[in-house]
Design goal:
By secondary structure, this protein is α/β, with parallel strands linked by helices. It has ten helices and 13 strands. It folds into three domains: about 80 residues, OB fold (Dihydrolipoamide Acetyltransferase, E2P) (Beta Barrel), CATH 2.40.50.140; about 140 residues, 3-Layer(aba) Sandwich (Rossmann fold), CATH 3.40.50.300; about 90 residues, Ribonucleotide Reductase Protein R1, domain 1. The protein has a six-stranded mixed sheet, sandwiched between helices. Strands 1-2-3-5-4 form a five-stranded mixed beta barrel.
C-alpha cells in the first residue's frame, strides 16, 4: 500500500490544529454513496461515513464529504477507519440546485452541492469549437462567477486550440471581455501547446479543479499534466460535435511534478448558489458603467440617464453581455428567494415539533 506525504497533499499546521483528538487526517480523492476513497499517511483507504456525518449531510447536502475535503478518520475496534469529521473548508465550489422544468421555468430546492473543496485554482475549460458555434461565453461567465465565489482563482482555458483554424486571437479577446481580470489561455493538450503554462499554476501542494462541458478535453488535459494516462478519454461525436461523458465521477489526482488536480464530469447546466461578489467581479465593466448612471438604483431597463444602456447603444458594451448579466441577476434573486423559503419552512417545522411536545407535556402533567 502506497504511503503519502500529507504536506504534498496540502496538509498544514493550521489544519492540524483543527483535527479532533484521537483521529488521523486524510484527503478525499473520490466519493461514492455513503463512502469515500481517501489518501492518508499510511496509504489509500475506502471508508464509510459515521452516522452523524450521514445525518448532517441529509439535513444539508453542502455538509456531504466531497472531493478535495480534508477529513478526520477514527479507527474502529474492528481495525477499519470511519470518516468521522469533515474539517473546515478553505474554499468550496458550490453549485445551486437549479434545473429547467418541462415548461422552461426554474425549479429546485435552493440547496447546493459541493463539487470540489480546498481548491486554489479553478480551470474553466471551454472548447474553442463547441458543436458549430464558438466558445459559449455565457457558460464561461457563469463558471467564472462561481469560481470567484468559491474562493479559488479562476483561469479560463480555451481547449483544442489546434482545431481552430483562424480567428483564435479574436476569440481569446472576446473571452477576456467576458471574464475581465482573469487569465485566459489557449491550450492544445494533444500537441502539448500551453500545457506547461497551465502546469505553472500548480506545483507544491496547490490544488486545481477543471470544470467545463463534455468534450472540452478535460481528461486529456489531466493526462498531459500527469505525464501519463490516468484518465480515460473519448473523441467528440462527429455527428453533432458533442462530447461523451468519459469522466463519470470527480477524482483528485496527485501529479508527479507537484500539485493536485480534480477532474470532473461534463457540466450541462450549473445553477448559482449564494452568489454575492462573484457576479459583480465577472461583470465589473457593467458595475463601472452603473456608477455613471443618473440614478443610484438604476435597473438599466430604460431609465433616463442610464450609462449602461448608452454603452450598449454606442457599441462599447456588447448587448449579449448585458442580457447575460440580467439572466444571472434574475437567477441569483430566484435562488435567494428559494433558499429563504426553505429556511422559513424548516423553522416552521421545527416550531411545530416544539409546540406539539409542549402540548403533550401539558396533557401529561398530574
Amino acid at each position: 500500500m502506497s504511503s503519502y506525504d500529507l504536506s504534498l497533499l496540502g496538509w498544514t499546521d493550521l489544519r492540524a490544529a483543527e483535527l479532533p483528538t484521537g483521529t488521523v487526517p486524510a484527503r478525499v480523492a473520490r466519493v461514492d454513496r455513503g463512502a469515500a476513497e481517501v489518501l492518508a499517511a499510511d496509504g489509500h483507504h475506502h471508508v464509510k461515513y459515521a452516522a452523524h456525518v450521514r445525518r448532517a449531510s441529509a439535513a444539508d447536502p453542502v455538509a456531504l464529504p466531497c472531493v478535495g475535503d480534508w477529513v478526520a478518520l477514527r479507527l474502529l475496534p474492528e481495525g477499519r477507519y470511519e470518516l468521522d469529521v469533515v474539517l473546515p473548508r478553505t474554499t468550496a465550489f458550490i453549485r445551486g440546485g437549479v434545473s429547467r422544468d418541462s415548461i422552461g421555468g426554474l425549479s429546485g430546492d435552493g440547496q447546493g452541492q459541493v463539487l470540489a473543496a480546498n481548491v486554489d485554482v479553478v480551470f474553466v475549460a471551454e472548447p474553442s469549437m463547441h458543436s458549430t458555434d464558438f466558445a459559449d461565453l455565457g457558460r464561461i461567465e457563469r463558471l467564472v462567477a462561481l469560481a470567484w465565489e468559491s474562493g479559488g482563482t479562476p483561469v479560463v482555458l480555451i481547449t483544442k486550440s489546434d482545431l481552430f483554424e483562424q480567428g483564435l486571437d479574436d476569440l481569446l479577446a472576446d473571452v477576456r471581455v467576458a471574464a475581465p481580470g482573469v487569465d485566459v489561455h489557449a491550450v492544445s493538450s494533444l500537441h502539448g501547446e500551453g500545457v506547461e503554462l497551465v502546469a505553472g499554476y500548480l506545483g507544491g501542494s496547490r490544488t486545481a479543479v477543471i470544470l467545463g462541458p463534455s468534450g472540452a478535453g478535460k481528461s486529456t488535459l489531466v493526462n498531459a499534466l500527469a505525464g501519463e494516462s490516468v484518465m480515460d478519454t473519448q473523441q467528440v461525436r462527429a455527428a453533432d460535435g458533442r462530447g461523451r461523458h468519459t469522466t463519470v465521477h470527480r477524482e483528485l489526482i496527485p501529479l508527479r511534478g507537484g500539485g493536485l488536480v480534480i477532474d470532473t464530469p461534463g457540466i450541462r447546466r450549473i445553477g448559482l448558489y449564494d452568489i454575492g461578489e462573484g457576479v459583480d467581479l465577472v461583470f465589473s465593466d457593467i458595475e463601472t458603467l452603473a456608477g455613471r448612471c443618473r440614478f443610484g438604483d438604476c435597473g438599466h431597463n430604460g431609465e433616463p440617464g442610464c450609462a449602461v444602456l448608452a454603452a450598449v447603444d454606442s457599441g462599447e458594451l456588447p448587448e449579449r453581455r448585458l442580457e447575460s448579466w440580467r439572466k444571472l441577476q434574475r437567477e441569483a434573486a430566484w435562488m435567494a428567494g428559494r433558499t429563504d423559503a426553505r429556511l422559513r419552512k424548516e423553522q416552521q417545522n421545527k416550531w411545530k415539533v416544539i409546540t406539539k411536545e409542549m402540548r403533550r407535556s401539558g396533557r401529561n402533567r398530574p
